[in-house]
From TrEMBL:
Keywords: Membrane, Transmembrane, Transmembrane helix. This is FecR family protein. Residues 177-269 form the FecR protein domain. It comes from Butyricimonas faecalis. GO terms for molecular function: sigma factor antagonist activity.
């Protein structure tokens, strides 16, 4: 019986250490059962981390503790008759103490915060969502499968996870469509140009085009299918370049925190203009622009770069730092590398974009000598 009590208290201390980050980090004490049910230890902690249950535990402990000495004396006098009753009483007291220890560790070290670590199951793949900031100071949240008319003249409509604009009268206004981390969406501009927008992307555009050019501004990643119009060329402006389009399908990846910008031509013709110099691309060519504004043009399978809009990840000998940046945007997680070496490991493979993140990481683990640890929405990557 004494060993059982000691083990119960030891287990509570282990839970408390885990919750406060004081453990050795080798193993989480909160483990799933074989049947995939909610972890028993985690369930205990969830139940006790409320004011009401803490008060109940304290009350139970005080009540049992007060009667324990008297019961113990009676047990000594009539050992055989009461052995089972007293054993349960003592174990109840031990369990109460164990729970209080877990609570105590957690509250003392975390400033009495009752938030448990987020389980990996709460990390979700991205979905269709966006926020539209209109030129007349409206903010419109757009959700998956939403159907709505966004303007009085019906020139802006949301349907089938797509925002569609049509020509209208008056003066154009400039809108900004923002795709958050963990999101994607599509837009059809008033000229018929269709743009698929990836996670963590901003597109600034007019409600319809006027003048000599059709200009949009991009921060992030997008795939364009541009309607051809010789009289009004289409121009994509990024923080580092202007892309002049001549009726084309192409992918632009221009995240501000990336060390490069990639423009990949699938069909047609485009010109990448950097520092007053234009680099012409033909299909299956990619222009890689680095932080020094140097352009390197390489031959590539262009469809591999835009496969994300078809619900896939396709990595072709890409380094792990770039891969994890893509996963971080799509799953809305934080990435932490334990060393610089691990960032330069390379991986090839094709993965479903809507797959559970643990399975995605496991696929990468199978072909590389690394391990992933998920704690809440932070993924830590270690070289084994």
């Amino acid at each position: 019986m004494g060993t059982q009590i000691e083990e119960t208290i030891k287990r509570a201390i282990q839970i408390g250490n885990y919750l406060t980050g004081k453990g050795d980090g080798k193993e989480s004490p909160v483990s799933l059962s074989e049947k995939g049910e909610e972890p028993s230890d985690e369930k205990i902690v969830r139940e006790v981390l409320s004011k009401q249950n803490v008060e109940n535990c304290l009350e139970q402990y005080q009540r049992l503790n007060a009667g324990l000495e008297q019961d113990w004396k009676k047990w000594q006098a009539t050992r055989k008759r009461h052995v089972r009753v007293i054993r349960y009483r003592v174990i109840s007291v031990a369990a109460t103490i164990a729970l209080l220890l877990a609570i105590g560790f957690y509250w003392f070290y975390s400033g009495k915060t009752s938030t448990l670590p987020v389980r990996a199951a709460q990390i979700q793949a991205g979905s269709f969502k966006a926020t539209l900031y209109t030129g007349d100071n409206k903010v419109i949240e757009i959700k998956e499968n939403m159907q709505a008319v966004l303007s009085q003249d019906s020139s802006a409509v949301v349907n089938h996870n797509e925002l569609k604009h049509t020509e209208t009268t008056g003066m154009p206004i400039t809108n900004t469509l923002v795709i958050p981390k963990g999101g994607e969406f599509a837009i059809v501009l008033a000229d018929g140009t269709k743009i698929w927008l990836n996670a963590d992307t901003r597109l600034k555009y007019p409600t319809f085009f006027s003048g000599d050019t059709r200009e949009v501004e991009l921060e992030g990643e997008a795939y364009f299918e541009v309607q051809h119009d010789e009289k009004m060329p289409f121009i994509v402006k990024t923080s580092k370049s202007d892309i002049r389009v001549y009726g084309t399908s192409f992918n632009v990846k221009a995240y501000p925190d990336d060390s490069y910008q990639k423009t990949t031509l699938e069909e047609g013709s485009i010109g990448l203009r950097v520092n007053d110099q234009e680099f012409k691309l033909v299909p299956n060519q990619q222009a890689v622009l680095n932080t020094a504004n140097e352009v390197n043009i390489i031959k590539i399978n262009a469809r591999q770069q835009s496969v994300w809009r078809h619900g896939r990840f396709l990595f072709d000998n890409e380094n792990l730092e770039d891969i994890m940046a893509q996963l971080a945007r799509w799953y809305d997680v934080n990435i932490f590398f334990t060393g610089a070496k691990v960032k330069n490991l390379h991986f090839s493979g094709e993965i479903d974009r809507y797959e559970d993140i643990e399975r995605v990481l496991h696929m990468i683990e199978l072909t590389t000598n690394i391990s992933f640890t998920i704690n809440g929405k932070t993924i830590t990557i270690t070289l084994e």
